[in-house]
Amino acid sequence: MSARLGIIGAGAWGTALAQAAARAGTPSILWAFEPEVAKAINETRENPAFLKGVTLDASIHATNDAADLSACDAWLVVTPAQHMRASLEAFGGHLKPGTPVALCSKGIERGTLKLMSDVLAETLPSAIPAVLSGPSFAADVARGLPTAVTLACTDAGAGEKLIKMIGSASFRPYLADDLIGAEIGGSVKNVLAIAAGIVEGRGLGKSAHAALIARGFAEMTRLAVALGAQRETLTGLCGLGDLVLTCSSPQSRNMSCGLALGRGEALADIMAARNSVTEGVATAPAVMELAARHGIDMPICEAVAAIVGGRASVDDAINALLSRPFTSEGA
Ligand SMILES: NC(=O)C1=CN([C@@H]2O[C@H](COP(=O)(O)OP(=O)(O)OC[C@H]3O[C@@H](n4cnc5c(N)ncnc54)[C@H](O)[C@@H]3O)[C@@H](O)[C@H]2O)C=CC1
Ligand SMILES: O=C(CO)COP(=O)(O)O
């Protein structure tokens, strides 16, 4: 019998990953938070709430019962970062010790400033932790368009097992061992994508957009290295790769949020109009608290945190960035 994958979270990304697993020949149990989402997937082979228009493979079985995951050989966790702790706590009794658990969400827990791997270690300490992150829109992966991501795991055997379960010609995980680098890359790029959207929405031009990506990458790398990551990780798929994707396409929820802010819409109105998650909004203040704790200068992320926190208008934040003293590029 082929290995079975458990997936926690049936939003766009969890559902797309179930499709990727199906393409790799791996059947999956997809746990949905909402009963109507599980019902729709099982009865119509579609997830109309979060991934409309994609016909889901017959090997994907949706459930609302956490106990159904106990028979799975590996788990992917794809619940929004701010709900990660509560979700994992609910699954505590159902994990076989030594099961590989790949964290696929991108964010930092507010209040505790914990990375998702810290939350996993505290809630399911017997799991083998991994992080899956990279430039990968759910809609692209679900359609089978070519995609490459980082799969970080310090246990190479467990990492290879996960890659075998989800990898295919079109969905290509690259093995790495730096979880912190992968997590900071995925978390900070969402904050920077809001900034990139603001640049576009305010009509600041492509030169400003490119400068933002380069200086944003420097901020992301500084924080990651201060937290113990390897600098090279950030130059890979889960760092620069995802930063370029998310800062370049309004298909990104974070960039589209920034676009709307740049055009003058209020954050509360933007959020009220969507049922999907925009991780950068909650991650921005958490990133700034982490940066302050480690003495790291992150002016672009600080501008985003001030805007989403209601402490600065878009124009004031832009002016503050442009008034900074000239400095050396390596600083
Ligand atoms: N959509 C994408 O293209 C990608 C998303 N991700 C990451 O995956 C994570 C999940 O995002 P999506 O699947 O896009 O979500 P989504 O925006 O499609 O759906 C929202 C999700 O939040 C869940 N949810 C709402 N309230 C909840 C609660 N109280 N407890 C638990 N779950 C709750 C919903 O059930 C649903 O699964 C995020 O961290 C995101 O950054 C990563 C790569 C690609
Ligand atoms: O992480 C993503 C692509 O890699 C998806 O980005 P958004 O959450 O901004 O849509």
UniProtKB/TrEMBL annotation:
Top-level EC class: oxidoreductase
Subcellular location: Cytoplasm
Highest taxon, organism lineage: Bacteria
Keyword annotations from UniProtKB, A to Z: Cytoplasm, Lipid biosynthesis, Lipid metabolism, NAD, NADP, Nucleotide-binding, Oxidoreductase, Phospholipid biosynthesis, Phospholipid metabolism
Keyword hit for ATP-binding: no
TM region(s), chain numbering: none
Catalytic activity, reaction form: sn-glycerol 3-phosphate + NAD(+) = dihydroxyacetone phosphate + NADH + H(+); sn-glycerol 3-phosphate + NADP(+) = dihydroxyacetone phosphate + NADPH + H(+)
Pfam families from the UniProt entry: NAD_Gly3P_dh_C (PF07479), NAD_Gly3P_dh_N (PF01210)
Record-annotated active site: K189
BP terms from Gene Ontology: carbohydrate metabolic process; glycerol-3-phosphate biosynthetic process; glycerol-3-phosphate catabolic process; glycerophospholipid metabolic process; phospholipid biosynthetic process
Pathway recorded for this protein: Membrane lipid metabolism; glycerophospholipid metabolism
GO molecular function, one term: NAD binding
Residues that bind NADPH: W13, K106, A138, R253, V277, E279
Cellular component GO terms held in the UniProt record: cytosol
Matches recorded under Gene3D superfamilies: N-(1-d-carboxylethyl)-l-norvaline Dehydrogenase, domain 2 (1.10.1040.10), NAD(P)-binding Rossmann-like Domain (3.40.50.720)
Keyword Acetylation: no
Family annotation (NCBIfam families): PRK00094.1-2, PRK00094.1-4
Entry similarity comment: Belongs to the NAD-dependent glycerol-3-phosphate dehydrogenase family.
Role of this protein: Catalyzes the reduction of the glycolytic intermediate dihydroxyacetone phosphate (DHAP) to sn-glycerol 3-phosphate (G3P), the key precursor for phospholipid synthesis.
UniProt name for this protein: Glycerol-3-phosphate dehydrogenase [NAD(P)+]
The species this protein was found in: Glycocaulis alkaliphilus
